[in-house]
Amino acid sequence: MKICPKCKGNVADGLNVCTHCGAVITPQAAKPKKKDSTEVKRDNQAIAITSVIITLVGIFIMFEVSALVGMIIYLIAFALSFNELRKDPEFRPETIVPFAKKCLSKENFKGMGLMFLVVAILPLMAVIGSYRWIVTDTYREVESMYNDYY
Ligand SMILES: [Zn+2]
User: Fold this and answer.
1) 74, 70, 29, 71: which is closest to 55 by C-alpha?
2) Ligand 1 centroid, distance to 94 Cα (angstroms)
3) 43 Cα to the center of ligand 1, angstroms
4) Is the Cβ–Cβ distance between 78 and 118 less than 8 Å?
5) Which residue, among 81, 61, 63, 64, has the nearest Cα to 122 in the 3D structure?
6) At CA 142, angle to CA 136 and CA 145, rounded to 5?
7) For residue 11, what are the β-bridge partners?
8) Where are the domains of the chain?
9) d(CA 150, ligand 1 centre) in Å
10) What pLDDT, in 10s, does the model give residues 64-97?
11) Residue 29 Cα, ligand 1 centroid: separation in angstroms?
12) Backbone torsions φ then ψ of 63, nearest 5 degrees
């Protein structure tokens, strides 16, 4: 059933003319159209590329400036990608293997694949980050001890 815009009477779905008042009923205004898959893909790609750039900046800062700041920058990229991947219905612990395969397949790689990688390197980044943190701190300590001594 649809509702006649003029007399608010019920009209059978198949009819284009109101059976009560004779008004012509145009097919219902299209509902807000869902993004088509190419559009979603393009959004994915933009987010993926942004995440990769942020990750690279994070790694650079981790090594050159501060391990902690670099890690925080990487976590921004992580959150961005994670939030986007989470929207996929297959993004669940029990379907993570087929989900990974789907992401890393050739047609999805530039978008979901890159986002997947940004998320998946979290443990690696944590290890590198802690290592850099310890090394930098230890180095500074040793250096200051050296300076105190001489
Ligand atoms: Zn009507």
Assistant:
1) 74
2) 52
3) 43
4) yes
5) 81
6) 140
7) 2
8) 1-32, 37-149
9) 97
10) 888 899 999 999 999 999 999 999 888 888 888 9
11) 17
12) -85, -35
